[in-house]
Structures are given as structure tokens and as C-alpha cells.
Amino acid sequence: MTMRLRMWVLALGGLGVAVLYVLACLDLPSFGGHRHPYGDRAVRAALARHTANTISSVNFDQRALDTLGEESILFGSVLGTVVLLRQTRDEDRQQPEPARVAPSVRRYALFALPVTLLIGLYIVAHGQLSPGGGFQGGVVVATSLHLLYIAVDYRALERIRPLGLYEVADAAGEAAYVLVGAAALPAGWAFLGNFLPYGTFNTLASGGTVPLLNAAIGVEVAAGVVVLLARFLDQAVEIVSTDEEAEDRA
């Protein structure tokens, strides 16, 4: 295919997208009006499947395949970081020196750590009932562990952060999401279809597969953020300039 033909194909494709975009905009409900077709359908579907939090119903039921893509982006980012920042043969790892922490900072961080961890787990567990969910709660859980880095030092964080286990948990969270989606196929549903009993509305067991997918996301996000931060915190770069380089820059 010549460059001229490629440009024509690109122009026709762009023109088609532009036409479809304009037609879609013409049918948009007016701003501030009472007509919200997508929102109304989303709310009805959430209530029909006994999911109290409509946003979680959209994320883990109505558009669960999109959420799988978002989770996979984070998983791929963590995997790429692990590969790029891995220790090479010509690198030496030195143990971090103990750091002095102000007593007030130590007391506050040690007090906030269990509270933050509990809040993060609560957000994950109640994702189908109230605002939040696996993405938000997973970040909060990962943040709570790093409060030990602030309260004590990096060595204390390393003792409660065996990276091998967190890397396995990251992969397990990604795999669990896919396996729950695939479990719908033998039952005659589509991939990631909500095939489990919907349970009682506004309880932890409600929503069918929504709490399972939400929990898988929580595990993947929490473990992924811990691994991601660990790889960056383990890096130490020291730039030493020779006299000749300094003279050249001058």
C-alpha cells in the first residue's frame, strides 16, 4: 500500500468517525434537563441485580469487560516496572541506613496505620453498597502499609512487605477476575455475565458476581501498588561528575 493510498484510507476513516460523532451529539440530552437515558438504564439494571451502588454495577456488571481492560493496564504497568527496574548483575544493593523520625510523626503514623488499613478493607468489602470499591480501597490499603516507612524507616517496611508474595497476589487478583468471568460460560452466560444469585438487596452478599470481581480488583490494585512503589523506592541513583565534565559544561 502506497503512502498516498494510506492517507486516503486515514482521511475516509476520520471522516466517518467525525460524522458518527456529530450524529451522536445531535441526540444528546440537554444539559441540566430531566432526560438521562443512560443513567436511567444503569440505575434500573443495578436495582434489578440487587446492587445498591450503581457505579459498581456499571464497573463490575454492565461494563465489566471495560474494567478488565483497566485492571490489565495496571497489571501491565506493574509488570513492566518490575522488568525494567530489576537488579542487574553489575548493580550492588546496599541496606538502607536507619533514619531519625520525629516523635510526633512516629506517633501519628503508627496510629493512622491500622485505621487506614481498616478503612481500605472496609471500602473494598462494601464497594457494591456504598461509594468506593476495589480500585479506591486497594490504593488505601497499599498506602496504609507505607505509613510504617514514615513512622519508622524503610527496613521496617521491608519486614512486612515480602515482595514475592505481593507479586503473586497481584497476578492472582488479575487471574481471579478472568476466572470469575470465564465461570459464566459453562452456565450459558456471556463472558463476565452476572450469573450468580443476586442475594438480598443492600447486604454484603448482594449483587451476584459484583462483590467477587470487586474483591479481585482490590487485591490486584493493593498488591500492584505495593510492588510498584517498592521498585521505585529500591532505586538509588548517584550522579558523580568528573573535573573534565565540569569543565566541558562550563
UniProtKB/TrEMBL annotation:
Q: How is the protein disposed in the membrane?
A: Multi-pass membrane protein
**Where in or outside the cell?**
Cell membrane
Residues of the Na+/H+ antiporter MnhB subunit-related protein domain: 106-226
Keywords (A to Z) from UniProt: Cell membrane, Membrane, Transmembrane, Transmembrane helix
Specify the domain of life of the species encoding this protein: Bacteria
Record carries keyword Transmembrane helix: yes
Q: A Pfam family for this UniProt protein?
A: MnhB
Does this entry carry the keyword Transmembrane?
A: yes
Major subcellular location class? membrane
Q: Where are the transmembrane segments?
A: 72-88, 108-129, 135-154, 175-192, 212-233
- Family according to the record: Belongs to the CPA3 antiporters (TC 2.A.63) subunit B family.
What is the protein name given in its UniProt record? MnhB domain-containing protein
Source organism of this protein record = Streptomyces bugieae
